[in-house]
Write a structure and sequence with these properties.
single chain, alpha/beta, Alpha/beta knot, 5-stranded parallel sheet, 5 helices, 5 strands
């Protein structure tokens, strides 16, 4: 199985990017992981929130294959602790799927088409974080999940 993270807009904070690169490298010891960045919509200020979500949604859906399992990182998704998330990852690995795709939406969330295609939703917190910080938090949690599955000391119980 491979895991892909899709996000809208580049990370312009070098410190966050450096940390994301570090955890991405660490993840490589456990699983094939990639990040697919969709460029910000040009002239988004001229679009309504709904139009922007629709355009971003079309770009997100264009990055998927027919067999991908799509999980949205969404404020209304299911919350779980790190142990439960590691079990969630294991369950998907055991299911035989080829690619598990997680998506961080744009500033207004996801279009209805993306919600309709999704196989699930996860929330990382009830708090609101910047979309750039969520990338780091999610990648770190992926890494933590795999260290839990391998019974390594990174996560202290």
């Amino acid at each position: 199985m491979t895991i892909k993270l899709i996000a809208i807009g580049k990370t312009d904070n070098n410190n966050l990017q450096s940390l994301m690169d570090d955890y991405t490298k660490r993840l490589g010891f456990y699983i094939k992981f990639s990040i697919d960045i969709i460029q910000d919509i040009k002239k988004a200020k001229n679009l309504s929130e709904e139009q922007q979500k629709q355009k971003e949604g079309e770009l997100i859906l264009s990055k998927l294959t027919a067999t991908d399992v799509l999980i949205l990182l969404d404020e209304n998704g299911k919350q779980q602790d790190s142990l439960a998330f590691s079990e969630y990852l294991q369950k998907h690995m055991n299911s035989g799927i080829k690619q598990l795709v997680f998506v961080i939406g744009g500033p207004y969330g996801f279009s209805q088409d993306v919600y309709n295609k999704a196989n699930g939703k996860i929330s990382l917190s009830k708090m609101t974080f910047s979309h750039q910080m969520i990338r780091l938090f999610f990648i770190e949690q992926l890494y933590r999940g795999f260290t839990i599955l391998k019974n390594e000391p990174y996560h202290h119980r």
